[in-house]
Design brief:
elongated; alpha/beta; 4-stranded mixed beta sheet; 13 helices
């Protein structure tokens, strides 16, 4: 008993090990600092091989074991399953039709609107296309009308840097949802353009991933397609696309990737039926503008489609 008391007096107990009193405090604190597992299911009974484990880090939390990492990923998937399901038809359901917006502005007449609607019925296409081709409206008027319909600004491609903006999101998501990252303002606002309608779910997922405030708007059709072509020709973050059967399979696959790649940071978001996992493999991979990558190196993207996801 006297021996144990003497040992306690002569040593500092930090974490789960004794540190000799002669060791420099700053050295002992760094060497024995204990990490806290981010899994709510962690029993705290992790074994010796995991004690020096510093990676992977998932959504700013550390899992002390593969089992705890899996629990963290499952919780993230459950969260995202309820976040990304706003569809374009649901967004558009309660908006004033574009033809009525243009009519209210005095830019078209009732006969022109009726003629455009009849042409759309016979030949298909969008009402804006029919108004341009059959009624002589300017494309800029259509874009302005759409911006009123969606209560959003008309954005330009001024300040667009394809090298930087190509790193914002995987090509498959840009193509699927018409995302057009345009620029970052003040290091904290990401401007994202769309052609003829906004996508709130896609913008929200982008905001969650980048940790930047996303401001969405419409871009004139010609400018939109020219800028988009330049963006898609630029090199982006390396991406792998995979299909998994269901949510449990997704959780297992994401955890396996985390265990294999050992990222210093990683995040999972849902964009409609896609689950997007981004990994930052080394310190310094982030540019300092939210979580945007500094370049193509030391960053990886995985895009998953879950069978039956909507």
């Amino acid at each position: 008993m006297l021996f144990l008391e003497k040992r306690a007096d002569d040593s500092l107990l930090r974490g789960d090990r004794f540190v000799p009193s002669g060791m420099a405090p700053e050295v002992s604190e760094v060497a024995t600092q204990r990490r806290v597992c981010g899994s709510p299911e962690c029993a705290g009974a992790w074994t010796a091989p995991w004690r020096s484990r510093k990676r992977p880090v998932f959504e700013e939390q550390w899992g002390c074991s593969g089992r705890c990492a899996l629990a963290m990923v499952r919780a993230a998937i459950r969260r995202e399953a309820g976040n990304g399901g706003v569809s374009a038809p649901e967004q558009h359901r309660h908006r004033v039709p574009l033809g009525l917006v243009l009519l209210a502005q005095g830019w078209i007449t009732h006969p022109q609107l009726q003629a455009a609607l009849e042409a759309q019925r016979l030949r298909g296409g969008r009402i804006g296309e029919r108004l341009i081709e059959d009624c002589g409206l300017e494309a800029e008027q259509i874009t302005r009308g759409l911006s009123m319909q969606w209560s959003c600004p008309v954005l330009s491609a001024s300040g667009f840097s394809p090298r930087e903006m190509a790193l914002v999101a995987p090509r498959v998501l840009i193509e699927e949802f018409g995302l057009l990252p345009l620029r970052v303002a003040g290091g904290r606002i990401l401007y994202v353009g769309f052609e003829d309608r906004l996508d709130a779910a896609a913008a929200l997922a982008l905001e969650q991933m980048t940790e930047l405030k996303v401001e969405s708007g419409l871009v004139r059709t010609e400018e939109y397609w020219t800028t988009r072509k330049t963006l898609l020709e630029s090199e982006g973050v390396p991406v792998k696309t995979e299909t998994v059967a269901e949510a449990d399979a997704l959780a297992g696959r994401v955890t396996a990737i985390l265990e294999q790649k050992q990222p210093v940071a990683s995040k999972l978001v849902r964009m409609h039926r896609y689950y997007w996992l981004r990994l930052w493999l080394e310190a310094g991979a982030k540019s300092g503008q939210g979580t945007l990558p500094r370049g193509c190196e030391d960053v990886l993207d995985y895009v998953f489609i879950v069978g039956g996801a909507s």
